[in-house]
Amino acid sequence: MADYNTMELMICVAARELEDxxxxxxxxxxxxxxxxxxxKTRSPNLLIMxxxxxxxxxxxxxxxxxxxxxxxxxxxxxxxxxxxMETCCRGMVDYTFxxxxxxxxxxNLNSTRIGGEHQKPKIRLPGSGxxxxxxxxxxxxMVITPQDNRRFVEKTDYITTPGxxxxxxxxxxxxxPLGAGPYKIIxxxxxxxxxxxxxxxxxxxxNPGYSEKDVQDNCGFExxxxxxxxxxxxxxxxxxxxxxxxxxxxxxxxxx
Amino acid sequence: MDIVDQGVGRLFTDPDADKARExxxxxxxxxxxKLMTVKEAVEKFVHDGDYLAIGGFGANRIPTAVCHExxxxxxxxxxxxxxxxxxxFQILSAGKVFNKLDIAYxxxxxxxxxSPNARKYMESGEVEVxxxxxxxxxxxxxxxxxxxxxxxxxxxxxxxxxxYSGAKKxxxxxxxxxxxxxxxxxxxxxxxxxxxxxxxGNCRIRGITISDLDLARATKRLIITAERIIPPDEIRxxxxxxxxxxxxxxAVCEVPYGSYPGNMPYEYFSDEEHLREWMKVEREPExxxxxxxxxxxxxxxxxxxxxxxxxxxxxxxxxxxxLMILNNH
Lengths: 256, 329
Description:
heterodimer, A: alpha/beta, eight-stranded mixed sheet, two-stranded antiparallel ribbon, about 25% strand, B: alpha/beta, 13 helices, about 35% helix, about 20% strand
């Protein structure tokens, strides 16, 4: 088995979620790397979209911005923000990957502020960008994030992006499109999903080298456990080779 | 229509479509020459207290020269559309030109990291904010472009983004489902950078258009900067390429490399070295002031800014990078 780092593992695991023929709205960084890897391995017909308007690019290298010229390099269409979000709202985008400074047990994400008051925050973060839009409108929202107690919190300081809100049927009651919501959380330690009734986060697989206890110890709330917890498949040699040589040869993401 | 919930955020512009109609009724439809310098355009069309929007996305196809000129002319108390605003936001924060802000994405430069100075400004309490998302802002601009006072969309429900927005949640009179209404955003003034324009303001853009086509239609006054001016005959030879027609435009300024240090699709890539330097100098107020003096306050225009940062040779390198000439693609 090849040696790999945490970021490489998370990207490889994330890429496996994107089946051939699916569509995904991505941002820069690890999500983009996962989509590129999927496209170059098991899912050659993966439809990649960027919120600023790029549709089905042949990504020549890692974009720096979700609106730079790489995001529509040899694409089928260079459109705009409304076109992409309307496509999501019509139910034609299957997946999106997001991140955030904080996440709670229902998959709600904070990327707006930590502490202070709204008009005078202690730490101001960038805000939603297109994250809330993608999470509201794409069928399955996934998160790629390192796992620690500061990030996985009982209650986020602010909900920028909807997860399952307060759990149960609170999301569908809010008015957000039915049947869409958080799907999987991919961390350096585990893969988590959501228990179907309560919509609380639960462990479904543990990454090589970690135990269920490690996962719980690095989480600020109580995690549920799936009836059968498996070990996450480590990256294969082929996945690592494509990731290192074709997806991110300059190690912009996997070198972090 | 029943309003079941609403955000606490203040609207910084009036969404009234009839008032907007009265304004647009007076706007000139004459096809006349609108060529001027960026300095003249900002003097004439950008005023203290105005609501300002900037085209492009992040550091891509932004009208950098207009942003510098607004800072150089010391505009204050403006309201601003933070609709994935990255380097443009960094420039305008350096000049503290705005104190009211609609936020979708600010202070960050995406994969490049966060701007220390813009963040400091946003944590100072000096800026009144209303929260949105990118799609919210696009929909608000679309409503204004449509000439109506709102459009319904299906995001932000159940979140603090809704709570701190100026949106209203309603029950659909047809289906009984919930929707959120995005109030029309009619900016007082906007600046958009394009690939080609004629002297009247007919514009061509290559690549993604983000929200700029709606923005051009939503705004009361529009400044266009263009990589190059082309003859009006060229426009009439192929009207399919015109995405912004002249009657929306108030000023046309020819600014080659006008998005520098940002990316201009099919022309030049972003100057990552310069953007990194910008983030670095922001950490130290004195160094930052010297940097701003060198790059904005003491510069006559965009040519001089480019000369300060590598001139034609740098532009040539960025062009190669954009076109991946050496990568064999």
